[in-house]
Write a structure and sequence with these properties.
alpha/beta; four-stranded parallel sheet
Length: about 260
């Protein structure tokens, strides 16, 4: 994949996801860093990543991120839990002096909450299978019962934008309905899932949610500040969208998701 025609990464913060999910992280980053220029690339032609092989995720993520780095971005955010789990460390080793920020399941704040006996983690199959997730669970979840649920098909359904369809409710019911009234909190381990918090609550009841968006935004700010690379406060921030999809409606869908409350 080469740099998208008409997209300049020079001086921007590049953010990527397999599709629309990373837009939830983009919203958090724009709120934390309102003077920055962000370019968000959704690899919707290959979405979702969460049910692909590790080799495919590595190849696809690299094909999106490397043009950002080589195109002059000042930082890249992997706004995808699956791509972070598979590709972040390899890319950091490949580009040791370039700031690459990933997103991880927010297990730590969930385990530090007052109620933390039973924590439901909703994530993709790839994220849950990887040792990185199990290491997080061991590190932070020793005093909690971590219930990891691979939510097959959920990210793909969110990609359609039909968030209130009967099919969405049926899928959520089949994935997590049996935990109704049995969990203290929910960790959203995929950046797509914050867009269906309300629908998840309709199935589980009123439970607190934890996701990695705000933590990722704070880490990005720390890295840029340390490098003296923050945009001046006189700069007017901006957001641009790009996609691997040939569907002209895809970018409009991205803008719609960006307008949605989380």
């Amino acid at each position: 994949m080469s740099e998208m025609p008409g997209v300049s990464y020079e001086g921007c913060i590049g953010a990527m996801d397999s599709g629309v999910g990373g837009i939830s992280v983009l919203k958090a980053m724009a709120a934390e860093l309102p003077h920055e220029r962000f370019v968000f690339f959704g690899d919707s032609d290959n979405a979702p990543y969460g049910e692909k092989s590790r080799a495919d995720v590595m190849r696809l993520a690299s094909a999106v991120i490397e043009p950002m780095i080589n195109g002059g971005a000042k930082a890249v955010v992997i706004a995808c839990n699956t791509a972070t789990s598979v590709a972040a460390q390899t890319l950091r080793e490949r580009y040791p002096y370039f700031p690459i920020v990933g997103v991880e399941p927010a297990l730590k704040p969930a385990t530090l909450a007052e109620k933390h006996d039973n924590i439901l983690v909703m994530a993709t199959s790839v994220t849950i299978k990887l040792e990185k997730f199990h290491k997080l669970a061991r590190e932070y979840g020793s005093n909690s019962n971590i219930i990891a649920v691979p939510c097959v098909g959920l990210a793909k359904m969110i990609e359609t934008g039909n968030l209130d369809s009967p099919q969405m409710h049926q899928l959520l019911e089949s994935l997590i309905g049996k935990y109704r009234g049995k969990v203290d909190s929910v960790v959203l381990g995929c950046t797509h899932y914050p867009f269906v918090k309300r629908q998840i609550r309709e199935v589980l009841g009123d439970v607190p949610f934890y996701d990695g968006g705000e933590g990722t935004a704070r880490q990005l700010k720390r890295l840029l500040s340390k490098r003296g690379a923050l945009a001046p406060e006189t700069s007017e921030g901006s957001i641009e969208f790009a996609t691997s999809s040939n569907d002209p409606a895809e970018l409009e869908l991205y803008r719609w998701f960006y307008s949605q409350p989380i």
